[in-house]
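Batch manifest, entry 17 of 40.
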Amino acid sequence: MDDLKLPIIKDLEIQKRVLSMDEYLEFVQFNLKHAFDKEAYAEWKKLRAVDVPFRLT
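Output type: structure tokens
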């Protein structure tokens, strides 16, 4: 069996910054306000509803 010759990926030294609770809350509220479409979600929820009686046997 041939040895695999995989590339070596060196870790970039990226500084990982931890958000404060205020910054995190601002981020979440911004995304909920701008990325979440309430009307589209309501339509999707209606389509997923089961309106036919069924029985598990």
